[in-house]
Amino acid sequence: MSQGLPGDPTVAGRLDQLHADLLQHRDYDLGFPGATDLPDVSALVPFERLLLNNVGHPFAPGGAYRLHTKHLEYEVIGFLADLFGAPLDNRHGYVTTGSTESTHWALWQARRQLAAATVYCSSAAHYSVAKAAELLRLRLREIPADERGEMRYDLLHAAVRRDSRHRRGTGVIVVASIGTTMTEAVDDVARIGAALDAAGVEPRRRWIHADAALAGVPLALDESVGRPAFMFTDGAHSIAVSGHKFMAVPFPCGVVVALADRHTGRGDITYTAAPDSTITGSRSGHAPLWLWYLLRHWGPAGLRARAEGARALARYTEQQLRGVGWPAWRAQPWAFTVVFPRPPQPLLDRWPLATDERGNAHVVLMPGVPPERVDRFVADLRDTVAAASGLLPGAMAS
Questions:
Q1: Taking a C-beta distance cutoff of 8 angstroms, is the pair 330, 7 a contact?
Q2: What percent of the chain has pLDDT over 70?
Q3: Per-residue pLDDT averaged across 102-106, rounded?
Q4: Are residues 284 and 323 in the same domain?
Q5: Domain boundary among 297, 325, 358
Q6: For residue 347, how far is the Cα from the chain centroid?
Q7: What pLDDT was estimated at residue 393?
Q8: Does residue 396 sit within a domain?
Q9: Cβ-contact 116, 167 below 8 angstroms
Q10: d(CA 299, CA 286)
Q11: CB atoms near residue 9 (< 10 Å)
Q12: Is-contact 336 312, C-beta < 8 A?
């Protein structure tokens, strides 16, 4: 078989077909979070043919390799550190491959400081928490969540107190979900801290990581939505966000921000002539470039407006679903996620939706979702249910 080259009709044909397939799938994309309202990014085109490798952490921009964007990465971290209330003289972090790596890094840092630590998270936490705990050989305790998906703080207190009696002086790591995958419920970091206080866990024996992949940036931007506590001023030691969810970077990436006095690095690496405190070492220089550009383009006011628009569309979706007789709800008024009973399988074959063991499904109304897509989904649900019930199309609501 001959190798395809640029201009080869076989290559062009396959790419054209792939592009057409992806556009078709996009028209049915409501079940998973990812903003698609990209502005004009033509200013980034000249960088596409450059290998950009951000070796080491961005707070030490020196090193032998000079094709990097660590100065922009530093600004991205600074923007988010400001947003999340990190002290000016006590902040650290880097741009990661996504929130899974960010959480892995936070647990790794916590393990290096806390003797024989146990990780606690809610039963609604992202599956990556259990993965990171397994990779780091940390004990994991799942705390039941309430019906909305929020951690039960009374049960966290009881579990930590019980474990502490058997393992005195050991560390406690809690991963707070700031927007669970299924309902977008948020664990309150201040209430987690109060539960640890009541269980007798001293401040230096704890690490609270906020997995804020989806909801962190939009919640931090607007205090008027009545958000729960999750920032550094509320007791978090590290916070992770995704770049490809709310911030619309068109490839997976993330950012982890942490208190510098709770972080330990590995010092200078001879090969790169730069210190390293990351998991991957070599990291994409394009991800910080995109994040920097988009944050500069929108600024706080533009990001806030995008969040308000997404919430408005979520309210509209909830109302439309109820209008055709299909129960729907949101965990909080600020949620982008609308939860409802699992639809019939023929609808799920056309509209890929996340589902859970309780029989729920959801849609996530991210910036860039056109209202017409919501209208098509609701109409398709109405007609699918009507057909399954032997009713005429449009008869379900009556």
A1: no
A2: 91
A3: 97
A4: no
A5: 297
A6: 27
A7: 44
A8: no
A9: yes
A10: 20
A11: 9
A12: no
pLDDT > 90 fraction of the chain, expressed in percent and rounded = 81
Do both 175 and 155 map to the same domain? Answer: yes
Cβ atoms of 256 and 107 within 8 Å: the answer is: no
Q: Is the pTM for the entire model greater than 0.85?
A: yes
- Model pLDDT for residues 177-209, shown as the tens digit of each residue: 999 999 999 999 999 999 999 999 999 999 999
Which residues fall within 8 angstroms of residue 47, CB to CB, at 6 or more apart?
286, 289
CA-nearest of 267, 138, 300, 290 to 207 is 138
Q: What is the DSSP letter of 9?
A: H
**What 3-state DSSP class applies to 395?**
coil
CATH number of the domain enclosing 177: 3.40.640.10
Asked whether 383 and 394 are in contact (CB, 8 A), the reply is yes
Q: Do residues 121 and 88 both lie within one domain?
A: yes
The residue among 316, 295, 317 whose CA lies nearest residue 306 is: 295
Element of type H or E holding 74:
helix 70-83
Q: What is the dihedral of CA 114, 116, 122, 126, to 10 degrees?
A: 80
Residues 66, 272: contact at Cβ < 8 Å? no
What is the separation of C-alpha 24 from the centre of its chain, rounded to a whole number of angstroms? 25
Residue 384 near residue 344, CB atoms below 8 Å: yes
Beta bridge partners of 159: none
Q: How far is residue 387's CA from residue 391's CA, in Å, rounded to a whole number?
A: 6
Q: What is the pLDDT of residue 390?
A: 65
We report the CATH number of the domain holding residue 372 as 3.90.1150.10
- Asked which of 125-129, 238-242, 390-394 is least confident by mean pLDDT, the reply is 390-394
Q: Is 325 left (phi over 0), alpha (psi -120 to 50) or beta?
A: left
Amino acid type, 352: P
329 falls within a domain: yes
For residue 340, the enclosing domain spans 9-40+299-389
60-79 pLDDT, tens digit each: 766 778 899 999 999 999 99
Domain count, the chain: 2
Contact, 174 vs 195, CB < 8 A?
no
Classify burial at 325, counting beta carbons within 10 Å of its beta carbon; exposed 0-12, middle 13-18, buried 19 or more: middle
Distance of CA 395 to the CA centre of its chain: 39
Bridge partners of 355, per DSSP, are: 361
